[in-house]
């Protein structure tokens, strides 16, 4: 498998892959620090798209994204899917998932301690960090980043390409638009339109974003 990224969140993904003992064909990708050839002096780092294409063709065409930013996750998905890669989820075994009506789409990363209830959909390429709680009847869009210790209560809908800061609580029946950034520690008590930044208790819009 190829992990796109070789810093930061890629190291968290590595730990989940180690749970699955799937290290024999594991490589990372970093085209910014081209002089770096190994992660932790053990795992090879590819530095060019040509190397990735060869890896997909000859070794393993699966890839996941070791980057947290929703916009970059979407860009990397487009880039490596176009090179023949198969977008693959990396999900910790140390999570709790409901028994009924669960839809986890491809390319998801879920880290240990997450709790996901029944009737939940998590969209393509989304990232669920440590100890996130998503309760019943919630729908999470594509390429959403949910930081540690976030609580998403019943019947919440979160749009695509959103970033939810650590320790945020989203109250029931809230609808959050696309391309929304919510600051850490916020409490969201009202629905939020597209393309805004929200912070505070209760959460308030502080600016529009592109």
From TrEMBL:
Keywords assigned: Acyltransferase, Amino-acid biosynthesis, Diaminopimelate biosynthesis, Lysine biosynthesis, Repeat, Transferase
Acyltransferase among keywords: yes
Pfam families per the UniProt record, alphabetical: Hexapep, PglD_N
Alphabetized PROSITE patterns for the sequence: HEXAPEP_TRANSFERASES
Keyword Transcription included in the entry's annotation: no
Domain PglD N-terminal: 2-80
InterPro entries according to UniProt: AcTrfase_PglD-like, Hexapep, Hexapep_transf_CS, PglD_N, Trans_hexapeptide_repeat, Trimer_LpxA-like_sf
Highest taxon above the source species: Bacteria
Family, similarity comment: Belongs to the transferase hexapeptide repeat family.
Name used for this protein in its record: Acetyltransferase
């Amino acid at each position: 498998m190829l992990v796109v990224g070789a810093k930061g969140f890629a190291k968290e993904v590595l730990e989940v892959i180690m749970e699955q003992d799937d290290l024999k064909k594991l490589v990372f990708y970093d085209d910014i620090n081209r002089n770096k050839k190994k992660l932790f002096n053990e795992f090879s780092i590819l530095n060019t798209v040509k190397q990735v294409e060869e890896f997909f063709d000859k070794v393993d065409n699966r890839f996941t994204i070791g980057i947290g930013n929703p916009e970059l996750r979407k860009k990397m998905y487009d880039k490596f899917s176009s090179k023949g890669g198969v977008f693959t989820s990396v999900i910790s075994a140390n999570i709790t998932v409901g028994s009924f009506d669960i839809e986890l789409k491809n390319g998801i990363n879920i880290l240990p301690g997450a709790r996901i209830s029944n009737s939940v959909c998590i969209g393509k390429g989304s990232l669920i960090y440590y100890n996130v709680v998503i309760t019943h009847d919630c729908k999470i869009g594509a390429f959403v980043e949910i930081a540690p210790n976030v609580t998403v209560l019943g019947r919440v809908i979160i749009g695509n390409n959103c970033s939810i800061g650590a320790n945020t609580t989203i109250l029931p029946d809230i609808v959050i638009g696309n391309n929304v950034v919510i600051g850490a520690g916020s409490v969201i008590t009202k629905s939020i339109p597209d393309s805004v930044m929200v912070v505070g208790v209760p959460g308030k819009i502080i600016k529009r974003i592109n």
